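Have a close read of this protein, sequence plus structure tokens, and explain what the tokens say about the fold. Thanks in advance:
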Amino acid sequence: MKSGRMRPWEVKEPVQKTLKGVLIGCGGVSAYHLHAWKHVRDAEIAAVCDRNVERAKKRAAEYGIPRYYTDAQTALEQISPDFVDIATRPGSHFELVKTAAARKVPVLCQKPLAETMDESRAIVRHCVESGARLMVNENFRHQAWFRRLKELIEEGTLGQPFHCRLHVRSRSSMDPDGFGDQGYFFDMPKFIILELGVHLLDTVRFLFGEAQSIYARTAKISPYTAGEDFAQITVDCGGVTCMIDTSWASFRLESEGSVAHADAVVEGTEGTAVLAPEGVLHLVRGDGKKSWPFSKDTIQESFTATHRHFAECLRSGQEFETSGRDTLRTMELVFAAYESAASDRVVGIEPPAE
């Protein structure tokens, strides 16, 4: 009589369903998203959507995507996706997230989550009430040099960190065409902190934990911008003084092969780590020096890592690193920075609720 037990070589691996997504927004940042999805196993973009039909059609052709739409509701109805990737400007996020959440479709939403704190909370609350999972696309914390820096901190290689500096310079706001097809940047009343500072505030939270206070100074240098294009922010993260220094109105001495968008320094009692513009992380300690070079494609690879994390968490049920709830902590810092700059005072940050 033949045994019903299968031999080891007869056991078949379960077939994993390919996650099917719709990408909404076919502007400049969408190229990073679509390239990333090409490198995420068992996930694909089945359709793109943009109110500009020519832009949607162009992106679909570039990435071999079979369908394109100009209306998000129609795209979701006809595709019935497993997820939505929103890559539009922040003012559109609330309505697009609501559209997806109404169908309980998980959402990956490009940062910043919203243009106000109230709207940020409303987006998260709406997803919680509808049961739709929400992750915010914060790719800076997924850049390989910041992941390695986090490991050095957690391993104790730097000893007790006490100082961090993140420094970003470009000349983009002084050129009327400096932001390419993201020309709407020039009309934003809240600008460099909301668009760039949000990345860096999330990064210091990732590296050092929650903030206790924040102080900011801002200025509008460019004649072309409605909002601030220079900001210096000091954040106290558990005794680590983090200085975020950003300008889109400055000349930068570019090094040959410049890779990193942000220069970084972290000082600890046992060592200092320095991220150089060419994408090399240097470690200096009393017992010597060490360096880790990173790929010139690290920025694009950070989008791939972000999207891969999103897909893996959809399958496993694990919490997203930058879930909607977690991102509210970053958005609180963004708007506390604006409050500080307006009042010229240090703003205290309430600890997260249990």
Summary: The longest strand covers residues 161-169. The chain has a mean pLDDT of 94. Residues 140-298+320-348 form a domain with the Dihydrodipicolinate Reductase; domain 2 fold (CATH 3.30.360.10).
